[in-house]
Design brief:
With about 45 residues, the protein is mostly helical. It is about 35% helix and about 0% strand. It starts with about 25 loop residues before the first helix and ends with a helix.
Length: about 45
């Protein structure tokens, strides 16, 4: 799949490089927010 939902952030600060959502901010946020969690980069702020 391509398009904005698979757009990778070249400056992704996430330390979990083996995550299937690594650098795909939209998918990462959707996953964590649906579970009431923050993403790694939101925790850093």
């Amino acid at each position: 799949m391509s398009g904005p939902e698979k757009e990778k952030n070249p400056n992704c600060p996430c330390p979990y490089g083996d995550c299937p959502r690594h650098a795909i901010c939209k998918e990462c946020k959707a996953y964590h927010h649906s579970r009431g969690q923050k993403t790694s980069c939101e925790k850093k702020k």
